[in-house]
């Protein structure tokens, strides 16, 4: 059973108790859990073949309505989310510098149902630094049991828009001599990604193409050869729509990219046409259930 599914079942077990009101909010705790997993994957730093370090201090920014609903349970929900991050890290063989903490914060520029995740790496030997101006950080979290490198300098939270979804699988070790991974995407857009397994030659214009999908105002980066969309927590991008199948369709990256129905109950509509397979262009609209997915690509 996957880490997200176990987390979801633990919360469902409390639905008649402490977390009864949590599940009425537009943003669901399992969505936040998935975003924290992606934040770990997207900020993993490979130290050597046996050690990949990921952030351990997270801020989840919520819209005012979602924050008001979730904030009374912030401590317990933060502990549950921190435990989920620890379980996911063990599964992916990630390590931490120090205590895992998850904080909820209000962001007045976000609409209901939207959220942002920011993260940084803090060493166990460092005392909790003062929060950036305008943010509140209640202290909570769980102490991981992983081996911790000594005395690195803490990193500041990057200030950036919501990060698109990266590949949820751990990156392979980088060969010696390769340049380090960039710490964050360039300002104003998603990071340029080289897509393994697509057959696109390195250095060609297609290799420098950024691809992502937009769902309800949120970007999800396409950073691997295929991207599965569906209602299941096992999908690469989860679409919370009762008309969407567990694994509804997938986008296959190439020249051109295509979308393929995966035997869903309600099928797909691409640019107004019912189909099982279609070629995608920048701005193509894919309708699954009652949700519209916009495919985007740009040379970067």
From TrEMBL:
Keyword Phosphoprotein belongs to the record: yes
Record keywords: Phosphoprotein
Pro residues composition bias: residue spans: 172-188
UniProt keyword tRNA-binding present: no
Biased composition (Low complexity): 128-162
Chain spans, region Disordered: 121-206
PANTHER family cross-referenced by the UniProt entry: NUCLEAR INHIBITOR OF PROTEIN PHOSPHATASE-1
Protein name per the record: Forkhead associated (FHA) domain, binds pSer, pThr, pTyr
Organism name: Actinacidiphila yanglinensis
Lineage of the organism: Bacteria, Bacillati, Actinomycetota, Actinomycetes, Kitasatosporales
